[in-house]
């Protein structure tokens, strides 16, 4: 298929940046979106031009490294990661607009690459549990109801890609933060730091400059892992009960 | 900063205030629409005028009305604070937006809807609330007791097509605002549960249709009957 790519190019964070159009031919519908960009980059390299920079790692939908705001949607038209998006989702002759995630807390590094270290700092603020040293504990030593384990696991499938922030009209990180708080708050192992975790992770989320939640649901609709809005409600409960009852005056 | 001010200036704290004031205003609307149904009574406004006097003189109602003023002001101030934070969270926007595929129009435009409702509110308060409290109203006497004839002011106001049209349009905006705000407030408060959330969502949608329609029928009824 024949395509026109409208790609955001930006030399570095200080550069203003802008769109550049590239015609592209001979793209197979079986290619993944990133393979299509590989073809473009090969052509650019052969011509001696700077290839388009974009993030990726596993290319199998599990690491959360790929991003890209494609035709007005994070990870493009399907509810999946960009690396798992295939060119059969597009038509011959299409113009595809590719932009980086847009958020003050995700500064552009170069072209389509953004710095998502703000997510790491939210995790560092409280997204951990204390464990005993010593011998390896038996598996299933602590009984956990199946429904709870499943729900915690669902929250834990968040890969930290940032599509929720990209999709949100307020660039809010509440879906991500709520998934990370939920996966621990629901399990016995997460109880020790429970209150402190909610308070600290939310304080960090605010400090990073993410917006507030309007409950539009765009995040969940675009999340490649389908993280549910119930996590945000749970996070709010965790936070309100933590600030009311923690020792942290 | 104490923990209270720190919490109330966090994004979640601010959203808590939005949700609580919003829910209080929903309670207010429920009371307001129920009382004003007396306009449909067709008794020349007697029941309505008696009700209006009660609402402006009863001490318990006074407390509720002060809470309502505070809620309106709080809802507006915190909307501005949150709106500014949200704007600064995305200084550079997208060239293309697919927002219509992932969220409702009302949920994305609560600020605009709210602003229109606020403008309506100012006009509405000036037309009736201000008149009732400080305006030069004619008096009527029922059973030897004097009442301000607010009903005559209302019926006079709704002889004007523009006024009627303005009210009906404002109620459409109110409906959209409520269609998202009602359930959203519960979600913000963390009140989300498999058993109740679907019911809250349905109730919210019904509320957002029924209450604005009842309100909109009032000017229409008066316009077409008097
Ligand atoms: S919640 Fe979904 S969209 Fe957000 S970071 Fe996690 S996986 Fe990505
Ligand atoms: S590259 Fe790992 S999820 Fe897309």
Q: Decide which structural class fits the backbone of chain B.
A: mainly alpha
- In terms of DSSP E residues, the strand content of chain B is under 5%
According to DSSP, the number of beta strands of chain B is 2
Beta-strand residue fraction of chain A: 5-15%
CATH topology of chain B: 3 helical TM bundles of succinate and fumarate reductases
Through-space gap between termini of chain B:
59 Å
Strand order of the largest sheet of chain B: 1-2
Estimate the mean pLDDT confidence of chain A: 97
- Fourth-level CATH superfamily of chain B: Fumarate reductase/succinate dehydrogenase, transmembrane subunit
CATH class of chain B: Mainly Alpha
CATH architecture of chain B: Up-down Bundle
The parts of chain B where pLDDT drops under 50 for at least 5 residues are none
Number of H- or I-type helical stretches of chain B: 9
CATH superfamily heading of the largest domain in chain A: Alpha-helical ferredoxin
Radius of gyration of chain A: 20 Å
- State the helical fraction of chain B: over 70%
- Tell the overall outline of chain B: globular
Name the chain pair whose interface involves the most residues.
Answer: A-B, 47 and 42 residues
Per-chain topology:
The complex is a heterodimer of chains A (249) and B (226).
Chain A: E1 3-9, E2 18-24, H1 33-46, E3 69-70, E4 73-74, E5 95-99, E6 108-110, E7 113-114, H2 117-126, H3 146-156, H4 163-167, H5 174-185, H6 194-207, H7 218-222, H8 230-245
Parallel strand pairs in A: 1-5
Antiparallel strand pairs in A: 1-2, 3-4, 3-5, 6-7
Chain B: H1 3-9, H2 11-36, H3 46-57, H4 59-89, H5 105-108, H6 110-134, E1 139-142, E2 145-148, H7 150-157, H8 161-188, H9 197-225
Antiparallel strand pairs in B: 1-2
The structure holds iron/sulfur cluster and FE2/S2 (inorganic) cluster.
